[in-house]
Structures are given as structure tokens and as C-alpha cells.
Write a structure and sequence with these properties.
heterodimer, A: five-stranded antiparallel beta sheet, 51% helix, elongated, B: elongated
Chain lengths: 671, 303
């Protein structure tokens, strides 16, 4: 029972820093909100409010049993919600629970610092989910506020101005930049065997999957999340409409659903480097999978990636951090030989071919059995029939999906067309496969690079023509040619605008000017972001080595660099201390003056006793030297006023008086 | 009496430094294991902030002048109260300054020292040993600005203060065996005649107050009779052989305090020192100071 009687303590944290700290914690938890289960989030905000409410005189903080119950409930609840305490989302949720528990019991300087450190840690977690410049600026603000909170906390309650604390925090941050930069450039980067990997791809949002089914790409169509950026340092950038970024190949088709199928042999084809080469530098955002993208199709090997059947690159490890690689593509180089296993895979018929489909294909075959003629017939079919390209084609249910799509509704997105087309080719006996990846991109004219977003997700087919090798066929281009030359968003916008009347068109015109400006700003921002990405976030072991080489430090040992690092830091510290050094030493002039006064009296024969206050002493001295009683009294009064009065007084009269002390003599007093 | 003193300012790690270090290691590990430039950058920024805050912590304490006002004497067991004057030069104000003594409890709140001004900070510590002390050890600390490091300055200030032996003991004071008769006011006359009035002092018996005069004048007067004499108390070290020396000093201190309170005239005799009979503040403090500074013959140094 003693446990229950030991109720909580009173809060002794000043409200202003506590409020600041809570604000920072809330700000740093917001970007993680998606990864934290809802009730934990609600609980967190609730506890923030409760803690502020408790921060009043006379209100007790929760007692130990209450905290234990909250702890058990919080952790248990998270485990129940996710079924396991391991993983990204349970991890972040548990972190949020711990932060809120620390917050509710926070009391005194130690807890305050623990919470501030948790704040720094949360800022790190924010950067794990997203690292672009916007997020960095957000984290910068969190840092600044956190520092301001700490400074304000240590300034004590006598300093009411939070603004000044924030200014000092900003100063600290700015002064910290040089050392941070030196460390960043010279601190040895190690990537070692102690790599741990996030077990789930939860961190990376939705992306390409290796299963193509109706709706799998259209779900990404409106996401402007950046997948990768690419530039072409040696020129030769193809037109946007020609940019087919190859990501994966699906070999096994079943009507409208395509999958990777069984693993095929690695490709060892005799390379005949033919046609132009396009050299690209790609900086890929982490997506947690093995995809690596390159223009159709990559012809060079990339470190850390294997070249697999279907002319695609596949990373050896899941890509959990931004990856930068260089690759050369050869759009016009086609294989001549179809390996046996690929032939088997690319001609395998779907398990069930609807009779109506068979009928259609047989019709084409009857006209001309040449694969090229069949291809043309299929193209014509898609062009002539009233097919509609739309992001919301509705759902197609599997057993009759293909039939429904081809003959009834005829509404679909790129994955519908690619899947259906490839299936038709297989039924006709032409080897075919579906390629998934991205098509097009936003060209950033400022930075001269291409941004590829999730909205550029695309699927197309390839068919094998004897003697010509794999040929790309993009059925989407047959239905909606504009789609290939513009991004999906602008395509949809343009199409939506067609139906409007004139006045709306004018409005759209002025809106367009604004739109263009907005677009320009976006491009400029993305360009800065790209440079940040390229130069800062991708500064890895490799980049560091080449940087050191460029400085002529290529052969310097790490020990030596480390020593120089310390020397540079020490130099900076010395410089900063010199700058911050306070001018002159402070002198307690008032104290010295009074000491002078006392010693003058002591020389005259009346010493101040240690127990004597200035008032008693002056009374005694005045009795001893009645002639100078007035001056003794005045000096003492001024001293007392300077030392003990609440309002600051001007010390000058006192100092003048003390400088010109008379000789204290008892002769004037006649007894 | 007021002595400035300066010591070197050191910035030392504290418990929170360890916490910061743990977070830095976590960031560095995250950077290395994930190949994450962001985590590295954050780690370097925080490291650099710690280094910069070190300089600021130093500058916050550097260039302060510390002096001490006169320290009132106390008995052992009481608290020595020290008024420390901390003066900052013009420029930046100083924040979160705490003044500690070696044995004292740390102060609850830190204080702000305005630029170009002095602040009085009261520090208390228990008086444990009697004696005359000539120096005071002070420590200035501050966790400002970020709290991850503590700036510290150790100061030794030359300053005298006394700690008197605790007034303790159960032995009643000795009645004079052969009372020395001595006139109270120095004038000796024949007979017990009325000798005029003088100002009544607080604590004196009310029996002799001139109540008639009280009605006329705003002050109270007490009647004096010539020939009135006081008994003189002799407090002698040698009369207490059953106690050890500290207990003797405590007993003597108790007698002195009691005698002073009841307006007795007393004399203090210590080995090698005699303080002539008298009373009043000066005498009282002189006696107690002798007790504080007492060194038993044969022993070497005073405490």
C-alpha cells in the first residue's frame, strides 16, 4: 500500500521551457504520424495537454502506479495492435509511448534533458522517412526550437524573453556549422558488416510491385513522389517521349494479371554493341526493393547490381538508402538469339483463354500468319475500337477480366493495355512479355536533369520478332498518344479543359500563367533539392575518397586526417573563445571602495568587526569621530543603497566620495 | 575584508554528457549502417553544437569577479551565511550562475548577473568545526547554455570568519568562592544612598524603575544606589578537568552566552590568556573569539 501513498511530486519545471519542449516534441512527431498507430498518437497529444495542465502550483504529477499502468497499457496496446513489437511501425509507436510517459513524469533538469535528447532522436527518425530539403529545413527548425528551449531552461526564470533565447540558439547553430562541415568532409565514412536492415518496406510508401494486375499502376498515377532523378553528363538525352525507364520484366501472363514467373537463367548474350550509347547518372530514392532503373535498355554492368534476364538491373541488396549509380544504355541494340528457357517462358499460354479472344486472334492469323502482320492487326484493333484511357477504369473481376476489357467496357489504364496486348500476342503464338518501369519524366531545365515520379509509372510490352529481336510495343500510345509526351497530370488537366466554354477558357489562360510560374518555382526548388541530394546526402565513402584525392590528400592516413581534424576543431574553439572573451576583468568597484573606506577608518583606530553590519559600524565610527560623522554616515548610506536596494543606483557619487576620503581624526571631538 | 579572487574556468562533462554521447553514437551508427548521409550530418551538427556550447559555457563564467561581504560569526551547528558578490564586466549578461561552497547544499535556483553589474548571492553551509578561518573555498558553476556540459571555477577567497564552539554543557557556572566586590559604575561612595537615575536597559529588573519619572519623560529611568556592586563570574578552563578540551570550550561558551544574556560581568581564563572582566558586545565577542581560536598548549596548529 505504501506504493499508493507515495504519490507524485509537484512539478518544478518552469512553464515557458516546458511549453517549448512540448511544442518541439509535437512538431517532431508529426512527420512520423503515418507510421504511428492512431490511438498512440491521440494519447501522445492528450498527454502533452495533461502535462501542461499539471504544471500549476499545487498539482501533483501522476504517481508511480498510474505511470506503471500507462506503461504496461501503452506497450501492450502497441503489441496487440501490430501483433509484434518488432518492425518500423511498432517501433515508432513504442517510441511515441515512451516519449509521452517520460513527458508525464518529467520533473526537474534531468528529465528535461532526457526529453530534449529524445527530441533530437525523433528528429533523426523524421529524416529516416524522408530526406529531401524540405524535410531538412523542418528538422532544422526543430533543432533551433529545441536549442532555444534548452537555452531558455538554463537561463532560469529571471529571463522572461524567449526570443532572446531563440536568437542565441540560432547563433549557436550558425557557429556550429564550420565544425559540422569539417567533420562532414573529413570524418571517415565506414560502411561495414554491421548493416542492419529494416525488415519491411513500410518506410518507403507505395512503389512498383512485381505483379501487374488491373489497378496496380493507376493507384500510383497521382503520386508525385520522386522515384529517381537522372542526368546525362555526356549529352545525348533522348526526347521525353522516348524515355522508357526499364525496371522489371514480367514473364508469366494470365489474362490481365502478369507476374515475374519462375526465375530464368542469367543472360550471357554475345554483345554486339550497336547504336548510340546513352550515359546516365541516376540518383535513386530508397524504395526498399531491388529495382534499379535505366533507360531501355541498360548495356553496362553496375556495381552492386546483377544483370538479369530481360535486360534489367537488379540490386544485390534491398535499396534502403539513396543510391547513386552510372549506367550506359543502348536503345538500338537488340538481341538476336532468344535463349531456350526464355522462349518457353514467353510463349506459355494463359491457363484459360476465353473463346472470344481466341476467335479474335484466329481472325488475325487467318488474314496473315506473319508475326508482323499479327502485330499490326492488333495495333489496328486497339486504335479502331472505342478504347478509352482513364485512371478510373473501375474493377475487372478476374475470370472474365480480359473479355470484359477487350469487348465490353474498353476502359483502362496502361497496365490494362499492356497486359491485354501481351496476352493477345501469346495467344497468337508470338513471344511476348510485359515490361514495367517508368515512362517520361519532368525535365528540369535549370538543373538539366529529369525527375521521374511515381506518376510516371508505366507498363508496356515487348514482342520477339525473328531477326529483329525484342521490339517494344506501347499499346497505351495507340489509345492516348498525348499520354506518352506529357505527364499524366497535365494530360488529364488538358483533357478536362477541352469541355469548358470560352470564359472558362480565359480563366484557364490566366491560371495557366500562374501555373507556369508555379511550375518554374517547383523546378527551381527541385533543382536545389537535387544538388543537395547529390552533393550532401550522397557524400559517401567513394565521394569522400575522390574529394580527398582532389585535395591531394589521397594517400594520407586516417590517423593523420583525424589529428588534423582535432587540430582544426581546437583552432576553431580557440578562435571562438577569443571572440567571446569578455573585455577586461570585472571589478566590484563598490566593494573595493567600501573596503578602502573601512581600512581608512581602521588606520584611524576603529576597525570594523566581522559581525558588524555597515549600519552599526557607521554609527560606532560616527561616535568616535563626531566631526566627520556626517561624511561617514553619507558614505555608509550610499553603500547600503547600492548594495541592498532593489532599484539599481548610480555608483558614481559613492565612488567619488570614497576616492577623496578625509583623514579621520578624533582631535576635533572634545570630550 | 573584500578580496577578489580568480581561478581558472574549466568546462567538464556531467551526467547529461553521457546521454548526449549515446544519442550521437546512435546517429553515427544509423549513418554507417544505413549509408544514410542525413544521419551523419545530424550527428556532426550535434557534435559541433556540443563543442560550440563548450566555448559558450566557458565564456559565461570567464571574467567574473567574486568577492565576499563580511561573514557573521556563528556557533558550531549553525549555518554560516556568506553573501557573495559576483560582478560581471560590461557586455553579455551571465546566466544560470550557481555559487556553491564545498560542504554546502547546492542552491535550488541559479541566478542571472546583469552585464556591468554586481549581484549578491547568499550561500549557506553548516559550521562543523570551531575555529578562526582565513579562507573560503567557493565554486561557481553554470550549465548554461545547453546543459550538456558544466563550466566550473574553483575559487579560494582570503576572508576571515569565526566559528565559535557550540554552547553546550550541563555544569552550572561556578559561584565565586571569594567574590571580588567591585562597584558597577566605577564611583565608590559610602552607604546605600540614592545615587540618581540613569537610562533603564532592556532586561534589567523592573523593581528599580523610577515610575514617577516615567510619567514625566518618554524614557524609562532606573534608580541607582551608590554602593551597589556586581558579583564577577570567573570562567576558568582549569576548573573543568573532567571534560575533554572541546567539551570544555563548549561549556565555557555556554556560560559566556548565558552570562551575557543575564547581564553578568564575567572573566574568561584560558591557558595563556585571560580576558579581564567586563560585559557587553565587544567583550562577549572577544571571549567567544578566543574560544574559537583556542589552541591547547602542546598541540601544534589551530583547526
Amino acid at each position: 500500500m505504501s506504493l499508493f501513498r507515495q504519490s507524485g511530486r509537484y512539478s518544478d519545471v518552469a512553464t515557458a521551457p516546458l511549453l517549448g519542449l512540448i511544442l518541439v516534441l509535437v512538431l517532431s512527431i508529426i512527420p512520423l504520424a503515418e507510421k504511428i498507430t492512431d490511438w498512440v498518437l491521440v494519447g501522445f497529444f492528450g498527454i502533452c495537454a495533461v502535462r501542461l495542465f499539471l504544471n500549476r502550483p499545487g498539482v501533483r504529477l501522476p504517481s508511480l502506479p498510474v505511470k506503471l499502468v500507462l506503461f504496461a497499457g501503452g506497450i501492450g496496446g502497441v503489441i496487440l495492435t501490430y501483433g509484434s513489437p518488432v518492425g518500423i511501425e511498432p517501433g515508432f509507436s513504442i517510441l511515441a509511448v515512451l516519449v509521452s510517459l517520460k513527458l508525464i513524469e518529467a520533473n526537474g533538469a534531468r528529465d528535461f534533458h532526457v526529453l530534449a535528447l529524445l527530441g533530437f532522436f525523433l528528429a533523426l527518425c523524421d529524416l529516416f522517412t524522408e530526406q529531401d530539403l524540405t524535410r531538412w529545413m523542418y528538422v532544422g527548425v526543430i533543432f533551433l526550437l529545441l536549442l532555444a528551449t534548452l537555452v531558455h531552461f538554463h537561463r532560469g526564470q529571471e529571463s522572461p524573453s524567449y526570443g532572446r533565447s531563440t536568437v542565441l540558439a540560432g547563433t549557436l547553430l550558425v557557429q556550429a556549422l564550420p565544425i559540422a562541415l569539417i567533420l562532414f568532409l573529413f570524418f571517415p565514412r565506414v560502411y561495414g558488416g554491421f548493416r542492419f536492415q529494416f525488415s519491411q518496406s513500410l518506410l518507403y510508401g507505395n512503389g512498383m510491385s512485381d505483379r501487374l494486375s488491373p489497378g496496380s499502376i493507376s493507384s500510383l498515377a497521382l503520386s508525385d513522389q520522386v522515384v529517381f532523378r537522372a542526368d546525362f553528363p555526356s549529352g545525348g538525352m533522348p526526347p521525353i517521349s522516348e524515355m522508357y525507364w526499364r525496371g522489371g520484366v514480367l514473364w508469366q501472363g494470365d489474362g490481365m494479371t502478369w507476374t515475374k514467373g519462375r526465375a530464368l537463367l542469367r543472360e550471357f548474350r554475345p554483345r554486339q554493341f550497336a547504336g548510340p550509347m546513352i550515359y546516365q547518372r541516376i540518383s535513386l530514392q530508397p524504395h526498399g526493393e531491388h529495382w534499379m532503373f535505366a533507360l531501355d535498355h541498360p548495356a553496362s554492368a553496375v556495381r552492386g547490381a546483377e544483370y538479369v534476364a530481360g535486360n534489367i538491373l537488379r540490386s544485390e541488396h534491398a535499396i534502403t538508402s539513396r543510391l547513386r549509380y552510372e549506367v550506359t544504355s543502348q536503345p538500338e541494340d537488340h538481341e538476336i538469339i532468344l535463349p531456350a528457357d526464355q522462349r518457353v517462358a514467353t510463349t506459355a499460354l494463359p491457363a484459360h483463354v476465353p473463346p472470344r479472344v481466341k476467335e479474335l486472334v484466329d481472325g488475325w492469323k487467318a488474314r496473315n500468319p506473319d508475326p508482323k502482320a499479327i502485330l499490326n492487326a492488333a495495333r489496328e484493333y486497339f486504335r479502331d475500337q472505342p478504347f478509352v484511357y482513364t485512371v478510373n477504369p473501375g474493377t475487372y473481376d478476374d475470370p472474365r477480366a480480359l473479355e470484359e476489357f477487350l469487348f465490353v467496357r474498353r476502359e483502362g489504364f496502361c497496365e490494362h493495355y499492356a497486359a491485354a496486348f501481351a496476352t493477345l500476342m501469346r495467344v497468337a503464338g508470338v513471344p511476348s512479355r510485359v515490361v514495367i518501369g517508368y515512362q517520361g519524366g519532368d525535365y528540369n531545365s535549370l538543373g538539366k536533369y529529369v525527375i521521374v515520379r511515381q506518376a510516371h509509372s508505366h507498363a508496356w510490352c515487348e514482342i520477339w520478332l525473328k531477326g529483329e529481336g525484342w521490339q517494344r510495343v506501347d499499346p497505351t500510345g495507340l489509345i492516348a498518344p498525348d499520354r506518352i509526351t506529357s505527364t499524366l497530370n497535365s494530360y488529364l488537366e488538358a483533357r478536362g479543359g477541352q469541355g469548358d466554354d470560352g470564359s472558362a477558357g480565359q480563366r484557364a489562360g490566366s491560371a495557366k500563367g500562374w501555373h507556369r510560374l508555379e511550375h518554374q518555382l517547383q523546378l527551381a526548388w527541385d533543382s536545389v533539392n537535387y544538388q543537395w541530394d547529390l552533393r550532401v546526402l550522397n557524400f559517401d565513402q567513394e565521394a569522400q575518397r575522390s574529394f580527398l584525392f582532389s585535395l591531394g590528400l589521397g594517400s594520407t592516413s586516417w590517423t593523420e586526417i583525424f589529428i588534423w581534424l582535432l587540430v582544426a576543431t581546437a583552432g576553431f574553439v580557440a578562435g571562438l573563445s577569443l571572440w567571446l572573451r569578455k573585455p577586461g576583468t570585472a571589478v566590484d568597484k563598490v566593494g573595493r571602495g567600501y573596503a578602502r573606506f573601512c581600512s581608512a577608518l581602521a588606520r584611524a583606530g576603529i576597525a570594523r568587526e566581522p559581525w558588524e553590519g555597515p549600519q552599526d559600524f557607521s554609527r560606532r565610527a560616527a561616535q568616535r569621530f563626531p566631526a566627520q560623522a556626517e561624511i561617514i554616515q553619507r558614505i555608509s548610506d550610499r553603500y547600503i543603497e547600492l548594495r541592498y536596494s532593489a532599484a539599481p543606483a548610480n555608483p558614481q557619487p559613492f565612488l567619488d566620495e570614497v576616492r577623496h576620503l578625509p583623514r579621520f581624526t578624533a582631535t576635533a571631538s572634545s570630550s | 575584508m573584500l578580496n577578489g579572487a580568480t581561478g581558472r574556468v574549466w568546462v567538464v562533462p556531467n551526467g547529461r554528457t553521457l546521454g548526449l554521447f549515446a544519442v550521437l553514437v546512435a546517429m553515427c551508427y544509423a549513418g554507417a549502417s544505413q549509408g544514410n548521409g542525413a544521419a551523419y550530418l545530424l550527428c556532426f551538427l550535434l557534435t559541433s553544437l556540443a563543442v560550440v556550447s563548450l566555448v559558450h559555457a566557458w565564456a559565461n563564467l570567464q571574467g567574473l569577479e567574486v568577492s565576499v561581504e563580511s561573514i557573521a560569526p556563528v556557533f558550531v551547528g549553525e549555518e554560516v551565511v556568506v553573501h557573495v558578490i559576483v560582478t560581471a564586466a560590461k557586455g553579455q549578461p551571465r546566466f544560470g550562475i550557481r555559487v556553491l561552497t564545498r560542504r554546502g547544499t547546492p542552491p535550488l535556483s541559479a541566478c542571472l548577473i546583469k552585464a556591468g553589474a554586481s549581484s549578491r548571492i547568499e550561500v549557506r553551509f553548516p559550521a562543523e568545526m570551531r575555529g578562526r578561518y582565513h579562507r573560503l573555498d567557493l565554486e561557481l558553476t553554470s550549465d548554461y547554455p545547453l546543459g550538456f556540459l558544466t563550466a566550473r571555477q574553483l575559487l579560494t577567497i582570503a576572508h576571515d570568519y569565526d566559528v565559535y564552539p557550540a554552547p553546550r554543557g550541563v555544569i552550572p557556572w561556578p559561584r565565586s568562592l571569594a567574590p571580588t566586590r567591585q562597584p558597577r559604575d566605577g564611583t565608590l561612595r559610602e552607604g546605600d544612598d540614592f545615587g540618581g537615575t540613569r537610562l533603564w536597559r532592556r532586561g534589567e529588573s523592573q523593581r528599580h524603575i523610577d515610575w514617577k519619572a516615567a510619567a514625566r519623560t518618554p524614557v524609562l529611568l532606573t534608580k541607582q544606589w551608590t554602593g551597589e556592586v556586581d558579583e564577577i563570574l570567573h570562567f576558568d578552563w582549569t576548573t573543568l578537568p573532567s571534560l575533554d578540551s572541546e567539551a570544555r570550550l563548549s561549556q565555557l561558551a555556554k556560560w559566556i552566552v548565558a552570562a551575557e544574556h543575564s547581564f553578568e560581568t564575567y572573566e574568561l581564563r584560558l591557558p595563556g590568556k585571560t580576558i579581564r572582566p567586563a560585559r557587553g558586545d565587544r567583550h562577549y565577542y572577544e571571549c567567544l573569539r578566543s574560544l574559537a581560536a583556542f589552541v591547547e598548549p602542546g598541540t601544534e596548529t589551530p583547526p
